[in-house]
Amino acid sequence: MTQDLKIADNLVVEFHYTLTDSEGNLIDSSNGAAPLPYLHGRQNIVPGLEKELTGKSVGDKLKVIVSPDEAYGEKYDEMVQEVPRDHFADIDDLQIGQQFQVEDQNGHTLLVSVIKINNDSVTLDGNHPLAGLTLHFDVEITSIRPATDKEIEHGHIHQEGESCGH
Q1: Which of 3, 84, 113, 122 is the most buried (most CB within 10 A)?
Q2: CB-based contacts of 22, cutoff 8 Å, min separation 6
Q3: What number of other Cβ atoms are within 10 A of residue 24's Cβ?
Q4: Which H or E run includes 158?
């Protein structure tokens, strides 16, 4: 029976959450929305939160504090770079917060955010927006179920009727 399940690898877990920073500023929440589903043990959520959810049951409520090294990592100054404004000449309405995919010198694709715009330059940040932050989660486990064979094979959950393209 799924009510008796405890969170472990290859189980689909759903939970409601509120995420704040160390000053109590709201970062994200499932309040007013469906609970967040994920496949446990497959790195679908930050490692520090996943570790703390292991062994919990439906109805459990917990507060979890996750340090940057178990969340989105530290913030690295070398991931912030100023580039010439003319690199964005084809973008009419360039705004702070916009994100772009760029290729690094090794051919890897990175997601960068615009953090500053000057007349002749644009400052891009390749750090995750939550890098360097200690994350504070208030969580309530709402459901646990066995994953399907396809979900285990693919490493993530499938919503009813969803095709993930692989």
Answers
A1: 122
A2: 133, 134, 136
A3: 7
A4: none
Secondary structure of residue 50 in the 3-state scheme = helix
Residue spans of the domains in the chain: they are 2-72+131-153, 77-125
Measured between its terminal Cα atoms, the distance across the chain in Å is: 30
Q: What is the pLDDT of residues 55-64, one digit of tens each?
A: 999 999 999 9
- Residues listed for the chain: 166
Q: What is the pLDDT of residue 4?
A: 84
103-147: pLDDT as tens digits: 888 888 989 999 999 999 999 999 999 999 999 999 999 999 999
Give the separation between CA 11 and CA 43, rounded to whole angstroms. 12
On the question of pLDDT at 166 being above 70, the answer is no
Q: Which contacts of 32-37 are long-range, i.e. CB under 8 A and separated by 24 or more positions?
A: 35/142, 35/143, 37/12, 37/13, 37/157, 37/159
166: amino acid identity, one letter: H
CATH 3.40.980.10 fits 2-72+131-153, yes or no: no
Dihedrals phi, psi of 68, to nearest 5 degrees = -55, -40
